[in-house]
Write a structure and sequence with these properties.
Largest sheet: 4 strands, antiparallel
Structural class: alpha+beta
Number of helices: 2
Number of domains: 1
Order of helices and strands: EHEEHE
Distance between the termini: 31 Å
Strand order of the largest sheet: 2-3-1-4
Strand content: 25-35%
Length: 91
């Protein structure tokens, strides 16, 4: 098998894919992240967001499960989220 025969990812698309987004706890954080995700995943349903505040309440994490269609789609979502000023970490 040559290197060109290797898949770009170990994922099989489409698949459900959780994206964890963390940032400071501010009003509208979940709505902002939803808007960012919807640009590249228009079928994303915000009802699929799990929210958890940090122990001190200063930070919030969202787990957003999307129906990923491709590695390119995931890359675009990660680029958009990591460049957002409210976001500290994306996993």
């Amino acid at each position: 098998m040559s290197s060109s025969d290797k898949p770009e990812t170990l994922l099989t698309f489409p698949c459900d894919f959780p994206i964890k987004v963390m940032g400071k706890r501010v009003d509208g954080f979940a709505q902002e992240m939803t808007a960012v995700i919807l640009v590249n995943a228009p079928d994303f349903d915000p009802v699929n967001i799990e929210m958890r505040a940090s122990a001190g309440g200063k930070y919030i994490s969202l787990t957003c499960t999307i129906n990923a269609q491709s590695q390119a789609q995931l890359d675009a979502i990660y680029r958009s989220l990591t460049s957002h000023p409210l976001v500290s970490i994306v996993l």
